[in-house]
Amino acid sequence: MARTVAQVTVDALKELGVQHVFGVVGDALNPLTDAIRTTDGLEWVGCRHEEAAAFAAGAQSQLSGTLGVCMGTVGPGSVHLLNGLYDAAKSRTPVLALCGQVPLAEIGSDYFQEVDNDLLFRDVAVYRATVTSPEQMPRMLESAVRAAVSRGGVAVLTVPGDMGDQELTDDRPARFALDRAVTRPDDPALAEAADLLNSASRVTLLVGRGARDARAEVLRTAEVLSAPMVLTLKAKEGFEDGNDFQVGQTGLIGNPAASHALDHGDVLLMLGTDFPYRDWYPKDCRVVQIDSREEHLGRRVPVDVGLTGDVGATLRALLPLLRTAPDRAHLDDARERFVRWQESQRRLADPAHEHRWTGRIRSALDNRDHEIRPEALAAAVDAYASDDAVFTSDTGMATVWLSRFVTMRGTRRLIGSYNLGSMANAMPQALGAQLWAGDRQTVAFCGDGGLSMLLGDLMTIATYRLPVKLVVFDNRRLGMVKLEQEQAGLPEFGTELDNPDFAAVATALGLTGIRVTDPADLHDSVRRAFDTPGPVLLDVLTNPEEVAVPGKPTAAQGWSFAIAKVKEILPGRES
């Protein structure tokens, strides 16, 4: 008996090693979900919102390096996938979205719930197509998967509601050729890069996620060139632990040592990074860039030598051409600055720490003596989380505190919406991560604004009894927006959140809820959250007035911040 379009699709997903399909059921998806129901080894994960499903699928893809899969039914169900799919696209991770559609004969008639999926997903997908005949399968599915995997992006396959249960006339197994090529530049280009690097007196490395699989080669390059290594946020995972060359992050979440290392080098070597913030690149500096995508070369900063290729393969060919740098002064200076900055951060993370006169003024103005420092919370989580934990973080201040106070030691992993910058990503990404690695601890750094945006999928975590630890930085604010307003000299406006007791909400939904309001209870509460089996939401009331000072603050930023605080204290007197 020939298989149906739905069964061919599901069988192919199982063959590819896909273990979970995330989505919300709907009538147009019924043939596909029924095929999943009857297929061993492939689990349907019913979410409360399709956006959460797409985030969860993207998280699994980023962690596993393989295909993630989500589904949305006809019309609104597919529209809801968009934000999570944009995150996958910006993260360049392969995700297949299977979308329902109105019956084939009704397409183009403005039918109930009809949406033109091929148009809707035009910007986000590297491949999109609608199945209009069973004879197109499994060829169309093979093309979708190959496009997603080879190009690191989203493929959308739309299946009309009356197409999934139609039988194939020429049934055959799906075949996927998914090996990725490893390339390196030709010898003349390598020689040009080596000449530039060998002539430099102070080389600084800027290392991104694209170099993650080349840790040994990157460390050897830093050693030969005596070069400090500035890490992008996504490179923390592979290069922070056991690395005597790294000096942390740059940018708004960065530190003075990283900024100094960039600004005082005479050659910048960029390895597998598309770091987007132009203002944080050094000026009057020669640049060598290695990236697997040719279109990335020079698009953030002018490049003197651009090398297209895999970072590991390129460095293996480049290293024999490099001369050992005789002077370590640039490296030693950057590392000393970084160690001093780390020591100052450890003082901030002490729960008993208070700024002297600034702390007293804050307490007098807003009576926040007992609110908890977010730095202390992040440091406590770092101390009690396991060395193989998977971390996710919401965009905004939660990511700042993770960046500064959580070390990616051991086999820890880290993902977030670090290219799209979406709200509400940490909790659904943790959902996908915990299903991907059920024997590992999963910790989500949640902003209160982000968590409340997709709060309903706490029920998904409860339904599947996923032992996720949700750490909520509950400052009753959209904290990063507040900081941006104040740095521009504007008083805080529209950022205050009227939050519930998130721990009580979690308890009502079937999770363990723990609420922390006193700094003296912080460490015991964090320890209890990690010791408690099953899903736990740790709701910590943190001080909304804590700010993260960037790596190289300007006088203008400081003056604007002061003006903003005066406007907040004296409302109505701006004129």
How is the biggest beta sheet arranged?
6 strands, parallel
Structural class: alpha/beta
> How many helix segments?
23
Helix content: 25-40%
Question: Reading side by side through the largest sheet, how are the strands ordered?
Answer: 2-1-3-4-6-5
**Global shape:** globular
Mean pLDDT: 93
Compute the gyration radius: what is it?
25 Å
Uncertain spans: 355-368
Q: Count of DSSP E strands?
A: 17
Distance between the termini: 81 Å
Strand content: 15-25%
Question: If you had to describe this structure to a student in words, what would you say it looks like?
Answer:
With 575 residues, the protein is an alpha/beta fold. The chain has helices spanning 5-15, 30-37, 50-64, 76-79, 82-90, 117-120, 139-151, 187-198, 215-225, 236-239, 256-263, 311-318, 329-348, 357-366, 374-384, 397-405, 426-436, 448-453, 458-463, 479-487, 502-509, 522-531, 555-569; strands at 20-23, 43-46, 68-72, 95-101, 125-130, 154-160, 203-207, 229-231, 267-271, 286-291, 305-308, 390-393, 413-416, 442-447, 469-474, 512-516, 536-541. The strands form three sheets. Strands 2-1-3-4-6-5 form a six-stranded parallel beta sheet, with helices on both faces. A six-stranded parallel beta sheet has the order 13-12-14-15-17-16, with helices on both faces. α9 (215-225) runs parallel beside α12, α15 (374-384) crosses α16 and α15 runs parallel beside α22 (522-531). It is globular, with a radius of gyration of 25 Å.
